[in-house]
Design brief:
Blueprint (H helix, E strand, L loop, with lengths): L32 H23 L4 H8 L3 H29 L1 H21 L3 H29 L5 H6 L1 H22 L8 H4 L1 H15 L13 H24 L3 H9 L1 H16 L14 H31 L4 H7 L1 H22 L2 H24 L9 H23 L7 H32 L4 H21 L18
Helix pairs in contact: 1-5, 1-7, 1-9, 3-4, 3-5, 3-10, 3-18, 4-5, 4-9, 5-18, 7-14, 7-15, 10-11, 10-12, 10-18, 13-17, 13-18, 13-19, 15-17, 16-17, 16-19, 18-19
Amino acid sequence: MKATEPRPVPHPRGVSSEAPERIADAVPPPGGRGRIVAVGVVMAAVVMDMLDASVVNVALPTLRADLHAGSAMLQWLLAGYTLAFAVLLTAGGRLGDVLGYRRVFLVGTGVFTVLSVACALAPNAELLVAARIGQGAAAALMVPQATALLQIMYAPHERARVMGLLSPIAGLSAALGPLVGGAILHADLFGTGWRPIFLMNLPVGVAVLVAAYRLLPSGRSAGAPRFDPRGTVYAVVGFGLLVLPLVQGPALHWPAWTVVCLVVSPIPLTLFVRDQRVRAGRGEATLVEPSLFRRRSFAGGLAVSLVVEAVLGGLMLVATFALQDGLGLSALAAGLATLPMIVGMVVGAAVLADPLIPRVGRHVVTIGGATVAAGTLALLWPFRHYGADCPVWAPMPGLFVAGVGLGMLMGPLFAITLQDVDTAHAGTASGTLEAVEQLGGALGVVTIGAVFLHHTTAGDSLGTAFGWGAGAILIVLALALALVPLLPRRFRTEDELGPE
């Protein structure tokens, strides 16, 4: 396949141009079949990550029996992956800026695939947990490059549509995890029990590696920015102290160490911010380019994304608990019941948001938020009316409407946050955005989930508990909509992204 001529990418005002631009040297022809296949490769890696993160949930009882795993080990099977992924996302994104997006994507995908095999062959719970933590770290290398590569392959005015598909595809993959896991466990292929849920990554990973090597742009330039080890340590320690208690606290009922971690976490994070500003002022290497935060689209997008992801995390937790604990559905049946939400996300992002963006600009986020609110209220009615006897079909219309709203929120947000980021900082920006989204999801589980679970454990009826959970969702959603004015009024075209 013949590569197109590299096209200079202008540095937007407010974003440092000291780091050389990264120009794709093997970009598939714009609009051609090669680019479509390349996007499919990137999406396949995202699907592999999200599917692997959720497929383990349904296998926990089998893992407990087969590996004689205690409760702490089972918690770390889930939390270890999430923690490593969230903490290392920013560093993983920066490595793409430094070493090249395709190269880091290939390394992350390769390590992820190898560790998937290690998970499948693990003889005990300890080695399985270690391999899962390694998988999370590898995913932190792989996933930010996926977004960065999309920025390279698509011009700014084209990105909203393709990036708008990332969230629903990731959501669909997460929802399919319990379904796929349940089907594999039920099949018990060759008497191997739970092990094929990890082995299924092997053919997918190998296919992604081969196709990525042949089709994806390298994003390489003559002079690459340098890595910042000290900033990485500050960020990993600070973000780890913040995320670890958010992940483990609810399950462990907030022991003292989780509170201490939360209280101490601002110290390394403050040192990180100060260090990055000083190093940038001296012209030295930074982990995160401070001038990115002077871009209204990036800073405002991060703020809104944090709260929107909290809404998504809280809504998914409340809906899942209501379906499983409230209605007594299995994980498999609950996963099927939430599919209307995922379908709605695809409709909202790909069908509704895309034509609205040029007409209403940032107000598409407001429309999406109002639609989520309508879906949440539509969900509330059957649980209040039927209680624990609610038929399975009754919540589905509300889930679909909420999904449409989430698609209209998340797709445009992803694109507008990254629209003014030049390709020299695509990895850093993508990793930072995805780290913020992980933090937002954890905050949603802790806040909205805590309200809902408090009322379920207090003996309230399903309708009452869901009413409190829905109220918490609407309050957080109102906060997200209050932050919408932080976003630029409209998406800018490719020509407008030049020097101002």
